[in-house]
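Session log. Operator J.P. requested a structure for one protein chain; no other inputs attached. Running the standard single-chain path with token output.
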Amino acid sequence: MSHQINIGFETAVADENAVSELIRTCALRVLESENVPFEAEIDVTVVDADAIREMNAEYRNKDVVTDVLSFPMYEFYNGEPQEELEREPDSGCVMLGDMVLCYTRACEQAAEFGHSPARECGYLTTHSVLHLLGYDHERNDEDTRLMRGKEEDNLSFLGLTREKEQ
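Structure written below.
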């Protein structure tokens, strides 16, 4: 399956290539682990704190900096589409949606939680792609456990552990 993960940077990061590769690897892993049966496309934008705060205020009425936002194109419920999916004419892929990641917030959280920025960016990417596929940790306790389990399974598979790298 040839999924397409498009990544753009609207803020400076130390190593764009490494961050791009990490995001792409994590997103592809989730799509693979979920056995997505179609070629999927996701647009990812890496932004600074001001940009994501503005988007969070506009789209969620929360005027605070957040770490990641997910904007699904289709309605899914725990990985199952709830409507007919259409392929994009240019790519031939189904556009799952957009992910906006605040790299500065991810780095701050990594320091707060005592693990690497790579682990935190990997977690946020995994979290966001699961949201695009209709998983929701805010729906109920059972769905919270399901989503958290999928996040940890994917991160474990990729070797992105909670322990701070030595």
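Operator note: The chain has a mean pLDDT of 94.
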